[in-house]
Amino acid sequence: MQRLTVLTTTYKSARYLQRYFEGVMSLANLGQIQVILIMNAPEPEEAEVAHAYEGRYTALFRLVEVEHRETIGASFNRGFALANTPYISLLDVDDVRVSDSYDRQMATLDANPDADFTYGDFMAINPDGSERGYFSQPEFDRIEFIRYCYASPTQLFRKSMLNKVGGWDEQFRTTGDFEFQARAAMSCKFKKTAGLILYYTYQSFNGSSSKSRLSLVESAAIQLRYGGYDRIATYRYHPYVADARHYRLDQMLSDGKWLPIQRYFPGYRQMMGER
């Protein structure tokens, strides 16, 4: 019985696809997993590789081809709607999971029915596969997980959690994983899974100052949304506050609809007033 949906979104990812599929095929207990691969404007070589795996492993892979390039948030929200398993995980196409990591993470939530979300340690690697360093993540603390991005890229959560916290905020193009984690941390319990979970491929901005700046603007917007004023005042986000205010801080964009943050965290206004 399938218990977990793994969501991956791609765009111009041909260089990573073969390694991605090989990594998926090395996972333990594949009979419990469904992979939904959302391919944005796939190029012929990407489609060829993906369809070959889908054709051979029809029970495991489901391909969704989007003719145009949509935001990563729109793709994940599309995947959330398609997922029909108790658990969901997000996997970047250039990252590689430890073979038993999904088993261990599902066991964590099985053993902790009061928790909705689990995460763990990861090893950062360069695109060539060489190691950059081990990232040991702290035990869950609600305030700290609103202030800092700890759970990505190892997050696994109950699908039912989406009813509590909503989907991806499609306003955010580079830091949506952090915003999703922070919103979930406001009202849900997290539980860390012990051991190495994933090999995370570190990607620089390749000299793109525009992408780097967008990430800082969005991070500043998240700090404003959740009251991280001390981080803005003392950290590098301060120069980006003016641009961050162009985001709708008290609303999120999901499936083309604007929804109030207060809807998913009734104590939001009180928390912000206290901060």
Mean pLDDT: 93
Largest sheet: 9 strands, mixed
**What percent of residues are in strands?**
15-25%
Distance between the termini: 46 Å
The CATH topology of one domain comes to: Spore Coat Polysaccharide Biosynthesis Protein SpsA, Chain A
Quick one: overall form?
Answer: globular
Write down how many β-strands occur, each being a DSSP E stretch of 2 or more residues.
11
Task: Name the structural class.
Answer: alpha/beta
Order of helices and strands: EHEHEHEEHEEHEHHEHHHEEH
Taking all Cα atoms into account, the compactness measure Rg is 18 Å
- By oligomeric state, this entry counts as single chain
The CATH class of one domain is identified as Alpha Beta
Query: What CATH architecture of one domain do you see?
Result: Alpha-Beta Complex
Give the helix level as a range of percent.
25-40%
Contiguous runs where pLDDT drops below 50 for at least 5 residues? 205-209
